[in-house]
Amino acid sequence: MDIKLLLNVLIFLIIGIYIQKIQCINFNNLKEADLIEVDNLFNNWNDYIDTKQRIIIGCFDSDNGIEYDNFIKAINSIESLETKKGLISSKKYSTIFNSNILNSYLGKKGINDIYVEAPEILVFKKDATNHILKYYYSADNNFREDSISKFIVESASEPMTKLEDIQLIDNYYYYIDSDNNHASLYSMEKPFIYLNLKNLNNKYISDVFNVLRQFKNQFNVVYTDENNFIRPPFENLKFSPLSIIKNVKKRGLEEAFDSSQFSDSYVTTIYHYTENMSENVYHQDLSYDFLIDFVNKYNNNTLIPQKPKKHFENQLNNKVIEFKYNDYVLELNNHNFIDVTGDVFKDVYVLVYYPWNEEYEMIKSIWNELAKNLYYERNNIILASYNVLENEVLNTEFKSRNDYPEIILYRSQIDDIENNKKKIIMYRREAGVSYETLASWITYTSK
After folding, report:
1. Rounded Cα distance, 162 and 365, in Å
2. pLDDT digits over 326-343, tens only?
3. Burial classification of residue 37, based on how many CB atoms lie within 10 Å of its CB (0-12 exposed, 13-18 middle, 19 or more buried)
4. 65, 77, 318, 369: least surrounded by Cβ within 10 Å?
5. 346, 379 in Cβ contact below 8 A?
6. Where are the beta strands (DSSP E) in 265-403?
7. Within a 10 A sphere around the Cβ of 226, how many other Cβ atoms?
8. Measured distance CA(352)–CA(356) in Å, rounded
9. Are 275 and 306 in contact (CB under 8 A)?
10. Residue 320 pLDDT more than 60?
11. Residue of 353, 357, 367, 350 whose CA lies nearest to 435
12. CA–CA dist 101, 88 (Å, integer)
């Protein structure tokens, strides 16, 4: 019995070791699958660069560290996105474990303004003026997989391209070089500058491109010379000469459902040049100084964004509801009240009022300012108003009230998606109605 037991144990050990070896072989093959030998990469350097491909080099002390492992994971995740639907990734990856050899290679290519020390990741690409652009991710960073992925995607994206070369595939934006089907992923978190040459006076083109070159690392620059067949999120910009488009990941949806179900899993905020010029400046004047001022205002968060869209899409049943904004406050009425306040993904704050009330007049300007600031910072929040005089009071518990204004929160059901009734929270007016107290209450009560 003892001998038979011993034999069984030995058999299990041998099988376990064999399986582990197979797993190691498969893992190592996976790790090396997308890498080019550094010698081959530099031998084909000019071909890669001249055909708008990106060169990504990871320099590490060895292939056993966490930095190397996360680099491999990051490039595999990017490759899986850039090889969808028959596309070919525009990126060429390589690794090297001797920084002195890499510095020597770069010196032979005339790249002498970078000195590499492991661990470090470098991205090289050519811009529209045939200059080599260089980006590096060094030991000052944390070398997390998501951080590396973000760096590679942002650094390797096309710096300036025609809008017609951008495609939306499964909620990701790609630059696709139609000559060779090479795909380059855009970072949705990196803002776009949109330029419509059809609406731009020729005398400003030189100034515009000088400014764009100056901020080329900050923005994805897209341009077009037509006003037809413009794809989202640019379709509403037909008559704008220049705009900044900022995409912000919608918070909350991924906690309730798979966010990929929703085409608007990113919230788009648009800043138009013509809407942000001072009154004494001709709005189509896109000369250098005014353009610099526009970008600086964006960086200082002082631009005025485009007003919200004219339709509200309920995420639960895809019903499109007509609505109207007064400044940045959504005006509710008998027709849209239930649909808007019943949106399970949003905290809806409603200011219920009589229009002649003096206290309402005091709150109105504060409510508008809060709505303007919160609409773009917290896309899961709606600030609305409801005129009791012009509309039926839909909530029976409020029918006998005569002391409006009242502020009511119809709270998001993200944490309780099966419940078909939203929780209602009333604001205690004795706490005061200053900007600070209302902002604090909204911050405290929102999801």
Report:
1. 42
2. 777 888 888 778 778 877
3. exposed
4. 318
5. no
6. 266-272, 311-313, 320-322, 324-326, 329-332, 347-353, 381-387
7. 13
8. 12
9. yes
10. no
11. 367
12. 30
C-alpha–C-alpha distance, residues 166 and 231, integer Å: 9
Other Cβ atoms less than 10 A from the Cβ of 439: the count is: 15
What is d(CA 38, CA 26) in angstroms, rounded to the nearest whole number?
22
Maximum alpha-carbon separation in the chain: 99
Q: Quick check: pTM over 0.85?
A: no
Euclidean distance between CA atoms 156 and 166, whole angstroms: 15
Q: Using an 8 Å Cβ cutoff, are 156 and 125 in contact?
A: yes
Q: Which two tokens stand for residue 294?
A: 């526009």
Number of C-beta neighbours around residue 304 at 10 A: 11
Highest mean pLDDT: which range of 7-16, 20-29, 229-238: 229-238
Q: Which two tokens stand for residue 14?
A: 């041998």
DSSP 35: B
Alpha-helical regions (H) of 122-195:
145-156
Please report where in the chains the tokens 């488009």 appear, as a residue. 245
Identity of the residue numbered 177:
D
Mean pLDDT check: name the lowest of 68-82, 295-309, 411-425: 411-425
| pLDDT interval class at 393 (50, 70, 90) | low
Kindly state the tokens that stand for 302: 């002082």
* DSSP-derived 3-state class of residue 96: strand
Question: For 2-95, where are the alpha helices, taking DSSP H only?
Answer: 2-32, 38-43, 45-50, 66-82
The whole-angstrom separation of Cα 172 and Cα 65 is 31
Collect contacts of 144-148 with beta carbons under 8 A, ≥24 apart. Answer: 144/70, 145/70, 145/73, 145/74, 145/77, 146/74, 148/70, 148/71, 148/74, 148/121
φ/ψ of 132, rounded to 5, equals: -85, 120
Cβ proximity of 94 and 121 under 8 Å: no
In the DSSP assignment, the letter for residue 404 is: -
Q: By mean pLDDT, which of 50-64, 114-128, 343-357 is the weakest?
A: 343-357
pLDDT band at 282 (very low <50, low <70, confident <90, very high): low
Instruction: Check: CB of residue 353 under 8 Å from CB of residue 405.
Output: yes
Place of tokens 């290519």: 109
